[in-house]
Each structure stands twice: as structure tokens, then as C-alpha cells.
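User: Batch of two.

Assistant: Item 1 of 2:
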Amino acid sequence: MHMIGHPFYRRILMLAPVCTIFFAFFLAACGDNGESAGTYPATIVEGRAAVEDMLKQTGASSISLAFVADNRIVWSEAFGFADLESGTLSTPETMYGIGSVSKMIAAIAVMILVDRNEISLDMPVCNYVPSFQMLSPEYCQVTVRMLLNHSSGFPGSDLRNSFTATPYPDYARQLLDTLSEERLKHAPGFINTYCNDGFSMIENLIESVTGKSYVRFVHDEILAPLEMTRSRYSLEAFPAGSFARTYTGEAADPQAFVNLYAAGGLYSTPSDMSKVLLMFLNSGYSGGTPILSGSAMEEMAKDQTEGTFNPVPSGNESFGLGWDSVSQPGMKTAGVKAWAKGGDTPTYGSAFIVLPDEKMGVFVSGASNFSSGNAAAIGERILLRALVEKARINDFPVPLPEIPKPSRIPTPQDLASITGHYAKNNNIMRIDANEDGSLTIRLFVGTAWMPYLDDLQMRDDGWFSTDDLPLMEFGTISADGRTYLVLRDAYGNRHYQDDTLFMQKIGPLEEPLSTAWSDRLHKSWLLVNGNPESLLPTNTEQRLSFFQPDGLEGLVAVDTYEGFSIVDPSGSDGIGAMMLLMPQGGRDLNDAFIVPRGGEEWVRFGSFLYRPKESVPSLSAPAETILIGGEGYSEWRSIQSDGSAVSVTVESNGVWKLFNPDIEWMSNRKGSDTVILPATRGSYFLKCYGSPGESIKVSIASAE
């Protein structure tokens, strides 16, 4: 079996690996910050072992958690360092970015207003937010409920200005502008497809209904009543030592300002999040203070995917209102009801799990190369051991055996049903049949199909898997006139499998690309409206290109920092249209709009705007004053090198970047500075950021 990478698990972003040499220090640094063990000593032993295992597996810089039961915090403890340089240990009072667990706070905020009859779940959003509009006329059918259960049909995630090294408080208003230029990807309410933009719209909803900013409303109505004094949104820099630093390799990352507050922006602590757990376990009350009504909590816990297009129900995504799952499969396998929410940012991962009937819950958060899946695996072990310890279940579930099932020879019909091309939001895949009846999976990488998995055998139950990864199984299903690839895999503590409608089968179109689209293939466009303080890969990966993968004639693959997105350009020379209709694999889609500008073709993909590389002006020698236009778009210049070293001096108050001839990032500078380009022939590229009307002086000279 040959395997490169692993694009299959749901994460907001790919995370850079963290060096595991720190692990020896973690165990020495693990202070016992626990509450009284009470009657759960085995649970605490299990939890500590789970954390130790995960530290070894991931190299996370710290992990912190809280376990609640019997109407109290039974155990809270932190492991690792909040700050490696200063030697500051993490504690249960150390803040972590909780990512999409923030959506639970947003859902609570909405349900508070539902309890007060100020919002109706099934009222159109446009009734409350008059400035909300989209290109699709059906946008006014989007209801408040659809924002909370991921069925609005919004494209997915407006990532521009979302994760930055400085605050960007206008993100929610930006979203309204972005949506006004976008189409719905499906009819409102048709599919539940994970959608950050739906929750970001809640910020506009709360402000429109209450007259308060979202952050102020959450503070007044949730954080203050629950006495969550260590929870906050990143409106300003946090005090040193108050939050868990994250690391890329051995280098400390800057504090991440997560500007999509409702969708993923809260920083909190296990001690504070335990108060939200206890509120859910006490019928919406915190002490004697009511936060939510019983009917609101009941509504939040209903499976919202029932009755929608959902041919392969997924336990991990049986969405409630805010919840990822109202039937968490790791607990359901043990016969226990659980509600769960996971959250990821580029550098943090968290899990929030409630067992409403057992009056137990857990919150786990970690930093650096740590995901919500890692957090959920720890949480599952803690809760399962607690259930055994309290005699709620008889035995602790063991991981499924990694033993291949018996194989059989597939029929030609078996092979025909699964071979072909597939796509999800940021991957394009091809499944080929080999002479011996096995399968090879290839991913479209660069401009070619690269092997990902090979020697997948058909098993006696009709699924395909390799001998090395027997729990990762593939099959197909047809629904609503489309064929989908189904992924069945083990999750959490790996004592259960869950199914995901993973990819949609696609094929070549009858008509070839138009001349206009054919002319765009293999050309490049360069980002002009990115944030210079972005912490996303757009900070260094700034190119968009169009390709037509072999075997998919008539379709176009849009290549950006997120991967390859398939679009259908057959309906217009001006739009490459979103074309996937599916739950899990259909999140975060975008149309590719061709934007005529000054006699050129620019490209808008999501809210990112790109200019053509081929028309970037050459920098005038020996010096040029560059003016930032009225829209504040970045200015690009090419710098020609004949093979001798070139000195580039920039006089600026802002950020500027240099890229090599292949648009690969070379250098990042702020303010006035000089950089020496290598003695290599070609066209280098300079990108200058600035405010509208700002002048930037650039001079070049021989460095030899």
C-alpha cells in the first residue's frame, strides 16, 4: 500500500507539525490542578493516560480539561506549558481558542431571544436583518433555524480576515458584503452542510434585534451570569501567561485573533466551560439563575438532519441547533445518549460533550498540532471510564480490531459502480480498477494524478479497504440521481465506525470548454485583497490557477491555497459554478466569478479577489513610487533579474512581500528595509500593502 498525506478528516485548516522533542518536558510539567477526585479515581487515571497517549501522538504543547458529574467539577487538570520560553505551566484557568465550540455560545444566545419571543426560529433572517441579501432570489427563505443547523445554503466560510495577527472587528459586516455577491449552493433547508457563515450571520442577527453588539450581548447574557470571568473574544492582545501559546516547530506563533466571533472566536478555559456543561446538565440553570428554558434545550437537542437530503446519516454530524451531534456515536455505541460539539482553529482543538441522562460532561482543549478529533478521543475515554466506574455500563469499550475482513473477487458491475472521478470541497480524486480487481485511489495534485491508496480489496461485505488500514472502508450509494463515495472509518477511541457521504461522483461534460475558459487554463492570478496580518496560508500562498484534469473535459479545477475545487463553467463564460450537492463533503464551496476590470479579467473566489499575473507591471528602474488605489488593493510589481544579484529597497509604513518566479513566498517585511534577491535569472514579484492613497517608494540596484 502506498499513501501520501491524509485529506479525509474534517479540519478547518491543515496544521503544521509540532516537534515532539518537547514531550519529555510535558510530563515533568504536569501539575495536578485537579479538584477532589470524589468517587471517580479510575476515571482520573484513565483521563491522565489518555492525555499522555495524545501528547506522544501529536506533540501538542499543552492539553487542559475538566470533567463534571454529580452537579460539580469532579476533576480539572492541565498538562504541558502555556509558554515554553518562560516555562509557564498551563492550568485549568489558562485560555485556549475553543474554535467552533463557540457555536454553542452563539446557539445559546439565539435561544435566549427565542425564549423572550424576540426571535422566531422559523422566521426568515431577512425579516430581522434588512441589509442581508444574495444573488439567489431564494435567499429570503433562509430562516434563523437554518443558520443554527447548517442548512442555509450559504457557500460556507468567508475566510478573508478570519484569522489574523491583529484584531479585525468588522468581520460580520464584511460577511454581509460577501454574501451580497454570492449565490446559494442549494435551496434553503435542503441539506445540512457544515457552514461557518451561518453562525457568523448570527452576529448581525443579534445586533439587529437587540441593538447590542454580539460580543456585548454574549457577555451580558451568558458569560457574566455564568461567572465565566476567564472567557473573552480576541478584541485586543491577551496578557502574557493568560493563554496557551501555540508553536510551529519550535517557534512560537503570534496570538491568533479569531475574528469570526460566533463561528469560532471565543477563548475560554476548562473551568469556565465546565459552567456551560453544568448549565446543560441542570435544565438550563446556573445555580438559581435561569439561562435557557427546558423547551429551548429540547429544541437544540433535536436531530435537524431528519427530513433533509441525507442518504447516509452520520452520527458525528447528526446536527442539532449548535450541536455537531445529538447522537454522538462513541457514546451511542455504549448505549448512552450524548450531545457533542468539536472546534478547531489553525492551532487549537477542543471537544465539548454532554451526557444529559447521566448528568456528566467533559471539556478538553489543546494547543499546537492538536485537533477536535484528538480532544474528542480523550473526552470519550474519560466519559466511558466514568460510566463503568458508576456502573452505568458493564465494560469499557475496546478499540475495534485492525484485522482485514475476508476478500472476494469483484464483479465487473462492482468495479463499474465505484471507479471514476469524485470531488469534495477541496479534493479531486480518481478511483481506478487494476487487472487483479483491486483499486487504486489517486488525488489530483499539481497538474497530475498522484497515487494515494492502492491495493484496496473488495471485502465479503461489499466494502473496499486495504490490508494495512482495514477500518478505513469505501463504498458507494446512489441518491437523487447522483452517485456518492461513502467513507466508513473509526473515530474517537476507535471502538466504533461512522459513515460519511465523502465525495460526489463527477464526469466529463458532453460539451468541451468554451474558448474563453480554455484560454484561462494554466494561467495565474494574484491575490490583491488579502490581509497582510493573515495567519492563513494566503499570507504566503497567493496564486489562483485554473486546470482541466485529464478525464474531466468540460469541467475546471480551481487551484488555491485550500486545494482543488471543481466548478462547472458550462453555463456561462463569466462563472465557474459550484456543482456539488452533498452533506459533509459539500462544505465550503465557492463560485469562480470572472470580474471584468480595466480591460482585464480578474477572478473572485469567495471574497478573495485576484488580478492576472501576466499583466503585472514591471518595476521601473532605478526607482518607482507606487500608489495604493482608492479601494486599498495591494499593488504587485515584477522585478527582472538577468542572473546577477539585485538589491530591492522599499520605503513603506506597511507590509511588503517578495516572491520568486514561481510565486513562492521568499520574504516578508514591514516598514522600510532592503532585501537582496538571489543571483538567479527570472521575474521576481513584489507585493506592497497599504492604505488607500498611500505612496510607497521602491528602488532597485545591482548588489554586486
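Item 2 of 2:
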Amino acid sequence: MPSTLDWLRARDDHELVALLRARPDLTVPAPSDLVVLAGRLNNGPSVWRAMESLNHFHIQVLQALAVLDAEKRAVPRTVLSQFLGPDAPDEAVDTALAELESLALVRGRDQVVMPSAVLAVLGTYPAGLAAPGSLSVEQAAAAVAELDDAARSIVQRLATGLPRGTTDARSAVGRAVKGLVAAGLLRWIDADTVELPREVALAVRGDQPIGPVQVQPPADGVVAHGRSTVDGTAALQAVAAVDRIRGRLDAIGRTPPPALRSGGLGIRELRRLAKLTGDDEHTCALDVELLAAMGLIISDHPRNRAVELWMPTSDADDFLELSDEAAWAELAATWVDLRRNPARAGGRDSMDKVLNALSPELSWIRGPVDRRFVLTMLAELAPGSGLSPQGLADRFAWRSPLRPAEHRAGVLDATVTEATALGVIAFGALSTAGRVLLEQTPKDAATALAEALPEPVDTVLVQADLTVVAPGRLVPELAARLAQVADLESAGSATVYRVTPQSVRRALDAGVTTAEVHEMFHSHSMTGVPQALDYLIDDVGRRYGTLRLGGASTYLRSDDPALIDQAIASAAALGIDVRRLAPTVAVSMAELPELMTHLRSAGLVPAAEDGSGALLDLTAQPHRVKQQRVALKHWREPPSASAEQLLALVDRMRSADREIPVTAGAGGDTSSILAELRNAAAHRRTVWITYADMQGASIRWLVDPITVSPGKLVGIDRLRGDVRNFALHRIVSVATADATDADADADGLPDQPDPDPA
């Protein structure tokens, strides 16, 4: 079989450029010649990275080659197609082989060879098949046909799953296993473990030796919902997500939660924040992670506080002023590129320690890659079409079969749940705005969302039970005024508010008059204003402010002496000393906010005023921290080399390669290198080895091989006289030294760096 180096030399420049573009890790750092490139090509981590992009059919082709021993001898393409069976059309096999050869995972199209490094990635049991046994497939099939039901079930279980199992010799199964071993259908690995030979598994599997062949991704689970339905639902959810995060930001600003000493936000505080807005803790964790990633909240030491608190930055006000569409686009773009995993918040790590939101333990470096992988699978469907949860899981498994099933499940669950909460997907389908977000800029995504949203309305439905229904998205001015005078009960396509005495008083505290409240409802209600609402507004307005509080520490004044009497009695019942100065004036040493809270809890409706008599709003103002906002670094692939740069690199490698003489044992093929080294050690011959260091540079060593063990060569460095260890995977060529080289010593030779320890 040709060596890796020979195979590279046979490629033309455009094929080498395509290889370097498909496997960019081969160019970092730039290889000095084709010998170094050959060494990297079969390096385990590089091969694993190349195989991560393969789909299920690619892996099945490689598994078939492994079963056919393609790492030892060339396999004719016709034999491969026959082994795969009729479910693998010739066109699909040819396409797969071409794609695999472009990644240097196979060599040749008509006579196919597979590097041994690929076999190592496929594992000990490629396609669930063990090493060959003593029987032929025909003999194994005849022996299996004569088994009883108990013995046959054991063989079938091992043939369709892991071909290895343990047994208790004293049990009934153990006795059946002994009979199978005696018949050559099983073999002992140790005293308690048996293994199913390859031929037996092939006999049981019949015409599907590597299982059902899947050339295309599963088509099951695709559901067409309609583009307008998906876009409209996702758009409304996007607006709801923006409102939710704005509310979260406001809650953090009014009552900043403490930061943990180890970093992050404690699970108890996370649940408190979630309860304030009626969400679950996982949604709350997503929100705070996004706010932190956007630089809208940070942990800081406020004045007169000994502990750090999570507080909004001054940039939070700019975010709150953004339109719904622009705010969503910024949130969604941040989420796609977020290198954090909010879904793990509240769970436990391997040490059974609780994982807190905003803590370093939630780091997820592959987050942007994995999210885009899942969203891209949905983007491949027709607009308006989605996948059921099982359909998406099956497609993910086909697209990325080398990932462990539990890892795929975690990625899917986190991505779909978070994308749904943010309005990127709806009904398992990617919205038009979500598609634009993947391919274009956040500004373009905001435009797409605006097109999907219904026109905002400026009318509401006021009902007799004092609820107010917004039949769609409200214009910003009406939404702000309604949020000031009513409490939000439920959000969605029809948002429901409720007017209460406390909510009306909140509007009056903010300086709104009762006349303005009446005018708002009468101007925007489609159903008229119930008499009960007018009475409520007038009642709160009539009682509001008849009792005034100011600072003395605090003073109380009212034109009604009876109210002063009632206030003094209520305060005394709570243990607060209030002293009358005149029939309509009293003072107290209690702070103004404290006395206001107690009197309102007693049923009074006092108003706060300053020294000039103007009304004061005692509502806690959101905290802000001044800090320069750090621009979000969106995820992107490392910059790829241009075609001109890759062609220049190929030209340099070919020029350097022409200066290296072709010698026996060279070529970068692992089996020939091992054979040459073992032969040199057995006959005590000196050899030159070409060694790739950590920087990719090619270094030649004059060595007397002593022993060749798994992964390591132990030899005497002839130029230094020292015994050194060499990692076998870094030896890219071996050549026999002539007599002049073998007699060389170290005098006058330049220093060489030590090889990597094995």
C-alpha cells in the first residue's frame, strides 16, 4: 500500500488546497514540507476533529471499511458496495468516498485504503463487531440455527449491541455461555467476560452486516405549520421575552440581589427573582446570563454596603429605551453567541455541588457552535416547517453520530427550550427572523421581526371586573401609561391587566392626576368604562393626599384633625411615637418611608411632600452602576486562509519536499515506520528519524533504536550519547544511516531541542 507521504505527493495542488481548507488545523503552524504534513494527517486529535463533521452514512462507510480490514489491505470499491447492501446506491457510495478522501480519511476510490488512525476513532468495536473468530460466517449461521431459545437470545443480544458481556458461571446463563464457548460461538476474554466473534454477529445480522444503512437523514417528524403561523407566534413570543427581560432588569435595579463570594448568583436569589415575574428558575437563569453578557448588570460594591450586589449598569437605561424589535435582535444575537450554559443552573456538578447562575462553572466554550448546529438543522427545512422533539433528536443523531447520546440530548434540550423562550423558534420551526439572525446582521433580524409583528393597537377592552384586555400589541405610549396604572396579570397575544387601589395610587405617586387616569381609559376603551372603575379612581383620588407627610424627621399635616387622630392612634399601635403639635399637624422621629408604609398598611392613604409642599414619589429608584460597556464579541470561525495563501503554502511544501531524498522506510506510514524501527533494533542498525516537534518543525535525529513499545521509541542519540524517548506518532519517516553517519560524534554539532516525552 502507498504510504501517506506517497499519497500526498500524488495529489495535485488543487486537491492539496482543498484538503487544507477542509482540515484547517493542519496548517497551524504552517508545515515546512510534505513530510511534516503527512505526520499531522494521521495524528489522532486531528483525525477526530475531521470526523466530527461526518454524518451517519459517512461513519457507516468507514465502519464497513474497518470490518473489511481496509487499514491492512486495499478494499475494492465493488466489494465495499456489496458489503453495504442494496440500501446504499452506488452514487451515494461514490459521493461518500469522494467526501471522505477530501478529508484524507480514506485513500483511493477504486481500491480504498483507510488509515489506522481512523480505526482508532471508530473504537474497539466498529459497527458493534469484534475481532474475527475460528468459524466462517456459513459455519456460524449453521451453528446458530441449532441453538435453543435461551442460547439464541444470548447470541442475538450480543450481535445487536455491544459484543461483550459478563456472566456468572454458576447461573443458568453461565451454563448456556459455556456451551456457546464450546461451540465456538463465544470466546472467553477473562474468567467472567465473553466476546462474540465477528463471523457470528455477521451470521445473525444477515443482509445488514453493519445495521440498517441510512443514506439520508430521517424524514419522520417533519410537521408543516405554515410560515405565517410560525412567524406570528414566534414574533409575539419575542415581544413577550423582551418585556420579561425588561421586568427582570427593573426588579434587579430596585432590589439588587447579593453576589456570592465565589462568583455568581445564589439559587435562592434566583428563585426570588423568578417569583417576582412569575417565571421558572431556568428562564430566570437565561435572562440574567443574557443581561450579564450584554454588560447590563455587573456585581459591584455599592456605597455603605459590605457585600457585592448584582446591579444594572448605566447602559441598562439605553437598552430599556430601545424598540421591541431592536431589543430582541440584541438579545437573540447575544444568546446565539453566548459561551455559557444557563440550562445547567440549579443542577449539580460531579462533586454534587450546586451550579449557580453567573458562576464560572456554567462556561460552555462550544455553545455558539452547538446552538448554530441545531438551528441550522431547522433552517434546512422549508419555511414554516418544524420537527417534533423525537424527529429533531433522530436528525441530530444522524448528523452527528460520534457525539454521545446524552450530550446530544443536553444540547437539544437547552437550545430548543431557550430558543422557544426567546421567540427564535415556534412549534419546533425556525422563524423567518431566526433564519435572518443566522445568516445576516441583528439589524436585519430586527427588520424581519417587525414585518412579522401585527400593527400595534391603541385600544383596550375594559371589563366590569376591573380587568383591562389589550387585544394585541399596544403602541408604546399607551403600554407605558397602562403599566403605570394597572398590574400585569398575564402576557400573550391578549395581555390582561388589573386595576387595583394600589395600582391607581402608584400612578398618583408618580404625579398622574385622577383626571388624566379617567381620560386615558375613556379615550382608549372600545367598550366604555365601567362605573366601578370610575368610582375606584375617584375614591382613591379623593382620599389620596388628604394626609401629608414631610421630614422632621417626619411631619404629618392634614386639614382634617380626625385624620391626624387616626394616624397617631395607628402609629402608636405599631410602636411608633407620633407627637401632635397642633390640631392639624404632628411630627415623628420615624423616617418618612417607614411611617408611610405603616400608615398605608393601616388603611390610610397619605401622600409624601417636600419642604415646598410638592408631592414626592417614594418609589424606590432603580440602582445603576457606572461602567463602560464592553462590546459583545460575537462568535465566528477563525479566519480561513485564502486560496492564494494555501497555494503558496503548497508550493513551499513541494519545494522543500524535493530537497529531501527518498530513502527506505520514509513516507509517514505508521506500519512501515514501526517495521523499520523494529528491524533496526533487532539488527542493531543506526537510523535517521524525521521528527515533528510541537511547533510543527521537522527535525532529524541519528538514533540507535533499543526498544519499540506501544507509543514510544527508546533509543540512543548518537550525536549526544544519551538515551532518549521519542513519541511514535511524531516520527514521520525513518531512513537507514550510512557508515559515515554511524561514526559521527557530537563534537562541533549545534544543539537540538529535546524530543517530546512519550
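Residues 222-452 form one domain.
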